[in-house]
Structure formats: structure tokens, C-alpha cells
């Protein structure tokens, strides 16, 4: 047990801090929702309060365990230009063709999309930027299952507030499966590029599909998938 703790100490401390930072805000949002909704700050700031738990934890643990922690993944990975294109090309089309009807102005909508990048970055700095590096020595199925389970259970109150006790237990357990699949997709993209931007982009688009689902959004996403695949295949080629 002592050897296990020493080997995985950065992971254990990271997860403890990520939950410590985020759980109070999950509780506030989901249990004391009236107070949360009356909080007079922009939705991006509200989401960042929750989502930056893993990011802050990653920054702290990178400093605490700088001699032990593995660090191969960076903000732009092995290519700044490719990282920016990976994020920017689909986003330009999305901002051009899918914003109508959601915000009072184009500028407000664009600000929200930038905010989406910011609060998603808070998560991905943790799950992919730090945690994945510490678990990359594991077989893929174990690595992404562990990340998927930790990611799901970090959500705390999201799927545990309604229904019977059995339902409250089973829902998070069931959601570990899709979170593991998503962790595999994001994780393989990050391992190929060494870029956190790849994970932020793909994660952001999951949120976009949920929040702004319309025909234009689906078409842009459908065209973006082969673009992303092509970029990752060609990533380490000149």
C-alpha cells in the first residue's frame, strides 16, 4: 500500500484537490440552485468556478511534484499552428453560421464561445494535461477507464440528486462508460499531438452539440470530424 501511494501520490493529491475545489460549487449549483441562479455574474464565470477545479489542481501538483510528475503534454503540443487551426477552423464556421437566435448580438455570442474555451480548458488542464500524463504507463483500457471513472465521480451532484438510492448509485456508474469512451477519443488525440488544445476543442464541441443543437451545428460538426481526423493523421508530418 505504501509503495502504491508513493507511486501514485501525484494522482491522489491531484484528484483530492480537484474535488475539493469543485465540489462546493457543484453543491451550490445543484442543491442551492436558487442562490446559485441569483448570483449576478456571467454564466462563463459561474462555469469556470466549477470547471477550473481540475485545472488549479494540475497547476498546484505540477509544482508540488515537479521532480516526480511526468510532463509530456503542453498547451500547444508539437505545433502551435496546427493546434490553432484544429480549434479555429470549425469555430469560425460555427460563429458564422450557427449563432442566430441564441444571443442578443454576435459579439455576445462570440464572447460566450471564448468563455467556452476558457472553462473547458480548466477541466482539460487537469484530466488530459496532468492526469493522463501520470497514467500513460498503464495499458490503454485501464488508463482511460480510470480517467473516465475519476472524471465522472468528480461531477459529484450532477447525477445523484433524484430517484431512489439505487438510481443515485447506478447513474454515475453507468456514465463511467461514455466518459471512458470520450476519454479514449480525447486522450488519443492528445497523445498524438501532445496538445491540450486538441482536448479542449473536442470537449468544447460536445458542449456545443448539447447547448446549441440545430441543423447548422450538426452539419459543421459532421464536416469537422474528417478535418480533425486528417489533421491528427498528418500531425507529425511536415
Architecture overview:
The protein is mainly alpha-helical and 238 residues long. Helix content is 77%, strand content 0%. It starts with a helix and ends in a 5-residue tail after the last helix. α5 packs across α8. The longest helix has 30 residues, at 2-31. The chain has helices at residues 2-31, 33-37, 43-64, 80-97, 106-135, 140-154, 165-193, 196-211, 215-233. The mean pLDDT is 90. The protein has a domain at 70-233.
What are the defining features of this structure?
77% helix; mainly alpha; 238 residues; single chain
Short description:
This protein has a domain at 70-233.
Report the span from N to C terminus.
46 Å
Total of DSSP H or I helical runs spanning 4+ residues = 9
Mean pLDDT level = 90
Biggest sheet character: none
Derived structural class: mainly alpha
Overall geometry comes to globular
Helix content: over 70%
- Helices and strands, in order, run as HHHHHHHHH
Quaternary form: single chain
Q: SSE layout and pairings?
A:
Elements: H1 2-31, H2 33-37, H3 43-64, H4 80-97, H5 106-135, H6 140-154, H7 165-193, H8 196-211, H9 215-233
Amino acid at each position: 500500500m505504501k509503495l502504491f501511494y508513493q507511486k501514485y501520490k501525484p494522482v491522489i493529491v491531484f484528484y483530492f484537490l480537484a474535488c475539493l475545489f469543485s465540489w462546493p460549487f457543484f453543491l451550490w449549483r445543484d442543491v442551492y440552485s436558487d442562490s446559485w441562479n441569483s448570483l449576478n455574474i456571467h454564466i462563463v464565470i459561474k462555469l469556470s468556478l466549477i470547471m477550473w477545479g481540475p485545472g488549479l489542481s494540475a497547476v498546484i501538483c505540477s509544482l508540488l511534484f515537479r521532480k516526480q510528475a511526468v510532463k509530456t503534454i503542453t498547451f500547444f503540443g508539437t505545433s502551435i499552428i496546427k493546434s490553432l487551426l484544429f480549434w479555429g477552423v470549425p469555430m469560425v464556421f460555427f460563429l458564422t453560421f450557427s449563432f442566430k437566435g441564441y444571443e442578443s448580438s454576435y459579439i455576445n455570442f462570440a464572447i460566450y464561445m471564448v468563455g467556452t474555451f476558457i472553462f473547458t480548458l480548466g477541466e482539460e488542464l487537469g484530466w488530459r494535461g496532468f492526469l493522463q500524463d501520470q497514467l500513460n504507463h498503464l495499458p490503454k483500457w485501464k488508463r482511460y477507464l480510470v480517467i473516465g471513472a475519476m472524471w465522472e465521480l468528480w461531477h459529484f451532484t450532477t447525477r445523484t440528486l433524484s430517484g431512489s438510492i439505487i438510481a443515485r448509485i447506478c447513474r454515475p456508474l453507468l456514465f463511467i462508460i461514455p466518459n471512458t469512451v470520450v476519454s479514449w477519443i480525447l486522450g488519443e488525440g492528445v497523445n498524438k499531438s501532445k496538445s491540450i488544445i486538441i482536448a479542449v476543442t473536442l470537449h468544447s464541441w460536445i458542449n456545443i452539440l448539447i447547448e446549441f443543437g440545430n441543423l447548422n451545428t450538426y452539419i459543421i460538426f459532421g464536416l469537422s470530424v474528417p478535418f480533425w481526423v486528417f489533421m491528427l493523421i498528418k500531425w507529425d508530418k511536415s
